[in-house]
Design goal:
238 residues; alpha/beta; six-stranded mixed β-sheet; four-stranded antiparallel β-sheet; 9 helices; 26% strand
């Protein structure tokens, strides 16, 4: 695995109005790696994801994508540079069918790569294929989450951000989502996900950061996190 990160975040400060939400956040995600950003509700996970994607502009700090600065760029320019984003509220096209959602999102990647097709997406998310003609607004929450990820893949990103992918999903759907993310890992996709669900993160992530009140409190491998019960109890226990 290359030592050069796909995503590099340095000293990120983000404010909402006069309220500071992130304090010097720093993290990295390497090629082919799945990294989890863990924390309780309101810890700053979603704000970090939005800041990386250009939706919550940073007042200080830098975000690099594949060695190039994307700080200050508009979100659609960041997407064109190879970063995909699956927001917490999914934002699927609810009045269109599953397959329409996929076809609408299809575009080549930043180097012209065209690796993801509707067929390949169905191979990773087999639950979606029999639903391909169903209006997306009539899908279950878990089906909508899978569609949101699949639609993002159709843009051929080099890395994807998943904001709280398991939130509100039934355990059986969470297990299916774990299998899908593990399948994406085997295909070399770089993934950064934010999560409250520690079990979910343990199943899919290689490394993890813990954020609490806008500060990074821990960074290390999943094995190191498992061995550090005190950190989990202090920053993740409900």
């Amino acid at each position: 695995m290359s030592a050069h990160p796909i995503i590099q975040v340095d000293d990120l400060d983000v404010y909402y109005g006069t309220s500071q939400i992130l304090f010097g956040v720093a993290l990295s995600v390497r090629p082919g790696e799945t990294m989890a950003l863990l924390g309780r509700n309101g810890a700053g996970k979603s704000t970090t994801m939005k800041a990386i994607m250009g939706l919550a502009p940073a007042r200080r700090g830098r975000v690099m994508l594949r060695g190039c600065s994307i700080s200050g760029l508009r979100p659609h320019h960041i997407a064109r540079a190879g970063l995909g984003f699956v927001p917490e509220d999914r934002q699927i096209f609810s009045d269109h069918t599953v397959e329409d959602n996929l076809v609408i999102a299809q575009k080549k990647g930043p180097e012209g790569q065209d690796e993801w097709s509707v067929r390949r997406v169905y191979d990773v998310f087999p639950l979606l294929e029999p639903l391909r003609h169903r209006v997306a607004g009539r899908l279950s929450g878990g089906e909508q989450q899978m569609l949101a990820i699949a639609r993002t893949l159709m843009g051929n990103p080099r890395c994807i951000l998943l904001d709280e992918p398991s939130e509100g999903l039934a355990p059986v759907i969470v297990d299916q989502l774990i299998q899908a993310i593990q399948a994406l890992k085997t295909q070399g996709l770089c993934i950064l996900l934010s999560e409250q669900n520690l079990h979910f993160a343990m199943e899919v992530a290689d490394r993890a950061y813990i954020i609490e009140k806008g500060h990074i409190r821990f960074g290390g491998t999943i094995t190191e996190l498992q061995a550090n019960a005190a950190v989990g109890a202090q920053y993740l226990a409900v």
